[in-house]
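Example record used in the benchmark description.
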Amino acid sequence: MLKFVFSVSMLASAPLIAICAGLPLVAMIDELPAALFATLPDDHPLPELDVTASYTPIDGWHLKIEVENFVFTDLCISEAKALARGHAHVHLGAEKIVTAYQPHIVIGHLPSGTHEITVSLRAQDHRVLGRPGGGMFVKTLLIKAP
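Model output (structure tokens):
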């Protein structure tokens, strides 16, 4: 029974997973659908996002997610208000590799070559945190792995 419930839930969530996987690639859109975006109000201080990477031979790649006007929290709620509070999703290329509930994370070793890392801010209900008037809070950087 548990296997059946899991299979049905995976099938039902597949369209949303596909949409969310493509969100880091969105640079700017005209309207933000409330089902996918938690748009900050016009009078709310906007988060400023920066991401840096460093490498250690033991752990691999470390990311430092620096954000002003945003609070990291691991408390997820089903219907979050549009506040600058939540977590970040980290993508390696088009694949989500980690949810960051704090500003310092380890993503480990990467194969040799250049890799695109994208970090996007999320609300407490996992919707993308949206800018008033359109867009998202996202930062992309390239990592050159040895």
